[in-house]
Amino acid sequence: MPVSGIGQAVVKVRYSVSVQLSSRFGSLEHSLDCLVLPNLTVNLPTRTADISAWNVPKHLPLADPQFNVCNGIDIIVGAELFSMILLEYIIAGKVPTSSPTSVTCLVSTVESLDAQVKKFWEVENFDQGKVYTALEQQCETHFARTHSRNAKGRYVVRLPVRQEMFPLIGETWSTAARRLYAVEKRFRADDSLRSSYVQFMEEYQQLNHMEEVQTRVALPQFFLPHHAISRPDSSTIKTRVVFDGSH
Fold first, then answer.
1. Where are the domains of the chain?
2. Is the bond preceding 225 in cis, omega lying within 30 degrees of 0?
3. DSSP code of residue 79
4. Most confident of 87-91, 97-101, 120-124, 129-133
């Protein structure tokens, strides 16, 4: 359950507990359902106050005899109980300080389950009234025109291509070739790396992620450099093939 407070800060609460409160001096008892948090707030008061000069009647039994000592807070009660537990004498007010270091506020609201479910469905629903930009509309049209489902029920869609970007890519063969020659040079010094690299590429072919091309295709054409990252200490994949899409 989310609990929100000052500045709309939200804390997720997982547990609740039933508590029976009773007065130290009277017959007042009250049951509360409380949320469990690792920390309620900072220590209060934030510093220990000197009350030697305060005119607190000695005969009054205080619920917290050490109310002036900086200490942790065990429970925070709501307004529905606050007015019931007050007697006609209460010690309250501001303690003078020359250098205030922090401000502490205790406010919280518990979001109802109905509101959470409503928000969930609002997030999950498609926005039927969305106005697309020209580029977004191109992507939407491309998806509607090219998507399908294969025999295994998986969706298949062609990659969107922006034809106007082709001239910006430039010549890619030379860089891809240099990368390949560098990888092959490493193969000559590391037969294990070569074996795992070839195995990876063969698996890519078997999965139809790529296919061997015997001749140059018609323009435009782009070449994707790739290289190996070797991690001998890895418990799973020792060699990983990285395709340099940013090239």
1. 1-125, 128-160, 169-243
2. no
3. H
4. 129-133
Between 141 and 127, name the one with better pLDDT.
Answer: 141
pLDDT for residue 144: 93
pLDDT value at position 211? 87
- Is residue 124 predicted with pLDDT exceeding 80? no
Contacts 24+ apart (CB under 8 A), 46-55: 46/70, 46/101, 46/102, 46/104, 47/97, 49/95
Q: How far is CA 104 from the centre of its chain?
A: 27
Which of 185, 170, 155, 148 has the alpha carbon at shortest distance from 220? 170
Cis peptide bond prior to 220, omega within 30° of 0: yes
Buried (b) or exposed (e) across 33-54, using 16+ Cβ within 10 A?
eebeeeeeeeeeeeeeeeeeee
What is residue 82's three-state secondary structure? helix
Evaluate if residue 100 carries a pLDDT over 60: no
Chain centre distance of CA 158: 31
Q: Can you name the residues that pair with 148 across neighbouring β-strands?
A: 156
Amino acid at 185: K
Beta bridge partner(s), residue 239: 230
Run of H or E residues at 74: none
Q: Are 195 and 185 in contact (CB under 8 A)?
A: no
Task: Name the amino acid, one letter, at 145.
Answer: R
Residue whose token pair is 């990983």? 240
Q: What is the pLDDT of residue 104?
A: 65
Distance CA 194, CA 160 (A): 34
**Strand ranges (E), 13-77:** 16-22, 29-35
